[in-house]
Amino acid sequence: MIDGFLIAKLISLWLFGFSTMLSIINPFGIAFVFHDMTRWLTTSERARLARQIGINSFIVLVVAMFLGSRVLSFFGISLEALRIGGGLAVAAAGWSMLRAEPTEAKSPPAAMDTAPIERMAFFPLTLPLTTGPGSIAAAIALGAERSVGGNDVLLISALSALMIAASVGACVWLAYAYAEPIARRIGTQGTLIATKLTAFLLLCIGVQIMLTGASDALRPLIAAAR
């Protein structure tokens, strides 16, 4: 039986983790980038893709929170290396979208294979566009805090991790699924402005992630040299 203290702790952990992950992922801002990268898809294909990205995001966050630290340790990868490498990928994606010329939406040929649509659901639309290195590192950090406490606390922490991942996945699904009507309402020029601003923010986020990883890696070296 879960008492009131544990329920309050569950809600507290969920609110903290959900707000943290949502601010890092920013699905409502990235939705314009998603729309720009999938202009050639039909409405039903885009909706199916949005649902799959939401599911993929849930899986990535759950794996990161429960197994992330173990996987990194197994391959000998530090959080600093994850931030630097992943931040570079995010910055490169933002820079590419920032420099891209506006293109008209084109319908795919009738006989076109839909396999590429399913493949792009994970890369690059889920990783690194949606659940990039910043969100993965944050999820790993949140998961690392679950290792302390009794059985009840560990159970509450595990439930909160699942709730966080499910809530973020649902927000990603809804934001991406409704990207087209929102873009249609604000018009072509408004969508272009929102896309470019989001791409610039994505570039800045990638640079900031790399700077954080570099500073974390250099801090012990600087301290040892003193």
TrEMBL record:
The keyword Transmembrane helix applies. It is a multi-pass membrane protein. It comes from the Bacteria. It is found in: Cell membrane. Keywords: Cell membrane, Membrane, Transmembrane, Transmembrane helix. The chain crosses the membrane at residues 12-34, 55-75, 81-100, 121-142, 154-179, 191-211. InterPro entries: Multi_antbiot-R_MarC. Belongs to the UPF0056 (MarC) family. This is UPF0056 membrane protein. It comes from Roseomonas alba.
